[in-house]
Design a protein that fits this description.
Layout: H1 2-32, H2 43-89
Helix pairs in contact: 1-2
Length: 90
């Protein structure tokens, strides 16, 4: 059973990663690539994509750290609120 849960968690993690990768790719491509006259991206387009992906990844990491912190604080406050609500009912 734990093997199944591990497999599901791995698949969910992979799906989340691929979704993020596709989102970043689409966003930065549409923002940075403007002409299709050349076979390869221009230096300006390449630089734009580098900066765009770097910023997006940094933002995502910062967001996830804050989300995890918020969830931990919520877990810590949950037992206190349950105790207070339980005490008020009697």
């Amino acid at each position: 059973m734990s093997n199944t849960l591990t497999n599901e968690a791995h698949q969910r993690s992979l799906k989340d990663f691929l979704t993020l990768y596709n989102t970043i790719s689409e966003y930065c491509f549409s923002r940075c690539i403007s002409t299709f006259n050349e076979r390869f991206a221009t230096q300006t387009e390449t630089s734009c994509v580098d900066v765009c992906t770097s910023n997006y990844v940094q933002y995502n990491q910062m967001f996830m750290f804050k989300f995890v912190d918020h969830q931990e604080q919520r877990k810590q406050n949950l037992p206190n609120s349950v105790i207070q609500e339980g005490g008020n009912e009697t």
